[in-house]
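Lab manual, section 2.4: Encoding a predicted structure.

Procedure: take the sequence of the chain (446 residues), apply the prediction step described in section 2.3, and record the output as structure tokens. A sample record is shown.
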Amino acid sequence: MTILDGNIVTVAMPAIQRDLGFSGPGLAWVVNAYLIPFGGLLLLIGRLGDLVGRKRMFTAGLAVFTVASVLAGVATGQDVLIAARALQGTGSAMASAVVLGMLVSLFPEPREQARAIAVFSAVGAAGGALGTFLGGALTQALSWHWIFLINLPIGVVAWLAAVRVLAPERGAGLGKGADYPGAALVTGALMLTVYVIVGAGDRELAATLLPAALALGLFVVFTLRQARAARPLLRLRLFRSRLLAGANAVQVLMIGTMYGFQFIGALYLQRVLGFSELATGTAFLPAPVAIGLLMLGLSARTIERFGAYRVLVAGLVLIAGGMALLSRAPAEGSYATDVLPPLLLLATGFAAAMPALTGLAMSGAREEDAGLASGLFNTTQVVGGSLGLAVLTTLAASRTDGLLNGGAELLPATAEGYQLAFRVATGIAVGALTLGAVVLRSGRRG
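Recorded output:
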């Protein structure tokens, strides 16, 4: 539910713009208002979850997210919708930041933990992939308001289940490690980073460089403080773990590739092949189906047999291959021959790579740092997705505009812009494969 809401608005954006009168740049804030607090607060909330108790943080986050979803669903003005989306992002961060830490504690035995992570990864991947379909289906059948209101029954059921099923958990206490000045520094730095990334294509260069420089400065001051603080928010020794640091770096590249494919792939279907909103969502359905079946049915057993390292490398090979095939999609292409085969390759590769990568990352963290490591892993996921989306959409738009200014027709120019984005995404996927193969070899016995 929380991952789905990051992209469910994609297909509904034109309807929201017509109904509420958003300008082009203003419409981007329907997405940005969610991503900025979500990405910026994950690290802080992951640490706070270790201190106050992960169950408390998780249930509080579900409550905040559900209430915010209702506010977004009944919004009749731009300001209310953007404020509700920001509150959604905050609740999403509260719930998401502690999940992996909870899983590691609930399932300490390696085989059970691998299965739990596979289920978690399958649910998350399905949420991301289903967002496009549900956004189109609900908008076309009912209205855009229902892409948010649908969260009310799901959120209530999830909250009741969490309260009843999860065992009470005592945190270490707020007095044992809450570096609030450090928290302010890193939260501000992360929010600025996501802000710079998600809006880079809509601003002048100077307006992008200033907040980027400020974010970098905040990161530097934060790092210096963590090296000297008696009770640091982020223990820098975490990055001594080759598995944890390497897995997070690989994730930035892998998620950047997959987010770019999902967004630009939807645009290719609509603007080049002429698909409707519902048809575009339906065209993506094979991805969550394949991901769910593979992750739940084969992932844990495959990792147990071959090791997380080998499964990760195989998955990244499939992702790179799928992107390479997609980069050939022409203006006169068809879904069956130019989109579906690479879609299935990408889904299969992601189903293999994501649980393996998650297991490698969390195996590099100590029990007392599980919440913090979970928040860090989720943070790099948001940053990677935002970065990939910003880079690839900017490249596609620039290429298309250049061709149109040179006299090219709209359809071929649009298709060639998307082809360039897919080629760059292929290079990013190859970078993830190379980095993972070299840096994560120490986890091959996994």
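Check your result against the sample. The longest helix spans residues 370-405.
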